[in-house]
Amino acid sequence: MSTTPKDHLRDSQRDDAAPPPGLDKRDWIAGLERGVSIIEAFDDANPRLTASQAGQRTNMTRTAARRYLLTLQHMGYVASDGKLFWLTPRVLRLGRSYLESARLPRVVQPFLQRVAAGTNEIAYLSVMDGDEVVYIARNGPNRSMSTGYVLGARVPAQVTASGMLMLALRSDAELGEWLATRQLTVFTSHTIASMERMKLELARIRAQGWALSEQQLDLNSRGIAVPLRDRHGTLVGALNITMPMGHESSEDAVARVLPVLRETAQAMRNLI
């Protein structure tokens, strides 16, 4: 498809658009924002895209999307057969750069090792990114099981102990906005599917200061999480353990794991 004057006009108007709130136009690089949005347009439901489809998913013209895709292809982040485009493993460098340069995952690693040794379970540090939990550090025994997460894994917050905990500890206004504007996705017969029930569960989690989630994402998975705060009391993430269901009751699992998580989170406060 050839480029039309109308396409060029739309692209130039987009380049001249106002920057996001709080950012001076002189400091805003629209092209960088749009290039990242192209990478984020790919997901499990859209692993391969044409330039037109990428443009539709990023609110760009086909011409602009194609230019960004070809640039990313030149940089090695995208591959193509001439029509369809897809991400390459080089994209993983972006996440690896964070894991290798961020201070928090490095600081928490020896503490996760302590949790794993004290419980014989896999321990994680997770943070929130939008509506998802991202696991940025882990330590523990290697198991042939489906309840473990790799570094960088992203999971809907609504079905994980750490995600529900961090949602529950948001301000009243932030939590109210989340409850009013989200739709819950059902993964198993145990997933909380009612917003009213979710509201009650988050209130209970906030009151007790820790979270338990069982079989909401995976029928073989149980998670227990406590908040991780810095020296000023600001929430920076969650420490959690993920374990298989079946070998002990919920009460026994909490009694065994929760004290270790709480003690470790408290010991870290003056270091972050």
Structural overview:
By secondary structure, the protein is of the alpha+beta class. The chain has 2 domains: 5-91, Arc Repressor Mutant, subunit A (Orthogonal Bundle), CATH 1.10.10.10; 102-271, GAF domain (Beta-Lactamase, 2-Layer Sandwich). 45% of the residues lie in helices and 18% in strands. The chain has 10 helices and 8 strands. It has a 6-stranded antiparallel sheet, with helices on both faces. The chain has a two-stranded antiparallel sheet with strand order 1-2. A hairpin with a 2-residue loop joins strand 3 and strand 4. The termini are far apart. The mean pLDDT is 88.
Number of extended strands: 8
Order of helices and strands: HHHHEEHHEEEHHHEEEH
The CATH class of the largest domain: Alpha Beta
Radius of gyration: 22 Å
Structural class: alpha+beta
Q: Give the total of domains.
A: 2
Unreliable spans: none
CATH superfamily of the largest domain: GAF domain
Reported for the largest beta sheet, the result is: 6 strands, antiparallel
How far apart are the first and last residues' alpha carbons, in Å?
53 Å
CATH architecture assignment name of the largest domain: 2-Layer Sandwich
| Mean residue pLDDT | 88
The percent of residues in helical segments reads 40-55%
The quaternary organization reads as single chain
Which fold name fills CATH's third level, the topology of the largest domain? Beta-Lactamase
* Sequence of strands across the biggest β-sheet: 5-4-3-8-7-6
